[in-house]
Amino acid sequence: MPSRGGGPPKRRPIPHVKKVIVVSSGKGGVGKSTIAANLAVALSFTSPSQSNAAGDGEGHRRKQQRRRRIGLLDLDVFGPSVPKLMGLQNAGEPELSAQGALLPLYSHGVACMSMGFLLPPSAQPKDLLEGAATAEGGNEDTPVVWRGMMVMKAVQQLLFDVDWRASTGSSGPHAAPHPSSGENIGADEGGDSLDVLVIDMPPGTGDVALSLSQLVQVDAAVVVSTPQEVALLDARKGVSLFRKTNVPIAGLILNMSHFISPDTGKNFLLFGSSAAFDALAQRLHVPILGRVPLEPALSAAGDCGQPAALALAFHRQSSADADAERGDEHDIAGEKSSSVPQTANVFADIARQLV
Ligand SMILES: Nc1ncnc2c1ncn2[C@@H]1O[C@H](COP(=O)(O)OP(=O)(O)OP(=O)(O)O)[C@@H](O)[C@H]1O
Ligand SMILES: [Mg+2]
Q1: 3-state SS, residue 128
Q2: Which segments within the chain are labelled E, that is strand?
Q3: How far apart are the C-alpha atoms of 234 and 215, rounded to whole Å?
């Protein structure tokens, strides 16, 4: 929460996280959560840096087995999407560590935390906050300041009171995968910290966005926009907030940039040309990280908790097998495959630019 006097609050690292990437947008509904979830999955399938790999057979084997340790934090307190997008809606409540920290739930090898895990399925975060304010304050209408404080408290807890280390997970179905379980998420290298935490932001440039940039050491911010002019205006506001708060901006992602007809392969610019988006990126001196097509399958995959970028897993396995036969090094991030849906390749490409 912004401090009262005494200068701006000091930025803190998120415990047990090596790199923080924020996915944001000035506008709601442009695909932040979909992109954050797919990016988290794609990042987990990109190989860690080549320099870690020994040239011998053992190093080669280790490298093939290691997945980056990735976390996905849902900071949208009022509209959490991560439980659904990652198929964790019925995963139950997170357990607490001996120190009282929240333990993430795991899906597809990604450590996840969301306000959605902390509330009963029927409860809306908004109702709960209003209920709490009424009970405490004896006031029918929740005072705005009260609600703001509750939100900020929740945000701070999600940012700083989660123990992202794999080894502290329990043995439940949504607990951290154990290195020997076949889903090695890399506890062997660099301790058991997360390599990357992807943060899915609520829409807009309000209190949560401002607090995040004041409280946390963010390594890279990604701003998502769709091609429409109204979205571009808000994307500009998002970039401007990060600039003002000295958060490094990794680049822009254009979502729903085009639609490829599945039968003819023809491109349709359903929301107009991307010329205005390209011009904005140029004017702001911000790189374009990728263009994600409008794809019904991407939405359907999110609705059933199986992010489309999971297609990279099957490709990773088959090409790792082929490489092993040839004795080659393998790096999914540096390649594109025609056997993987184009959208999954787009996410792999964006992931490669972020690590
Ligand atoms: N490239 C795409 N192709 C098809 N559908 C998409 C695409 N991107 C997002 N969607 C769909 O658009 C809807 C909104 O996406 P999403 O929830 O990710 O947006 P958001 O920016 O996180 O929204 P909010 O601001 O409410 O948090 C979802 O139904 C999602 O499946
Ligand atoms: Mg969202």
Answers
A1: helix
A2: 20-24, 70-74, 105-107, 110-114, 196-200, 220-225, 249-255, 259-260, 267-268, 288-292
A3: 23
Does the beta carbon of 256 lie inside 6 Å of ligand 1? Answer: yes
Tens digits of residue pLDDT in 229-239: 888 999 999 99
The answer to whether the CB of 223 is under 6 A from ligand 1 is: no
Residue that is written with structure tokens 């502290």 in the block: 168
Q: Of 114, 104, 250, which Cα lies nearest the Cα of 185?
A: 104
Q: Cβ of 38: how many Cβ atoms within 10 Å? A: 29
Domains within the chain, CATH numbers bracketed: 26-354 (3.40.50.300)
Residue nearest to atom 8 of ligand 1 (CA): 31
Q: How far is the CA of 182 from the centre of ligand 2 (A)?
A: 31
| Mean pLDDT, range 140-148, rounded to an integer | 63
Task: Choose one of 32, 34, 259 to mutate for the ligand 1 pocket test, by most ligand atoms within 8 angstroms of C-beta.
Answer: 34
* Parallel/antiparallel/unpaired status of strands 105-107 and 259-260: unpaired
**Does residue 15's CB lie within 6 angstroms of at least one atom of ligand 1?**
no
Q: Percentage of residues in the chain with pLDDT exceeding 90?
A: 56
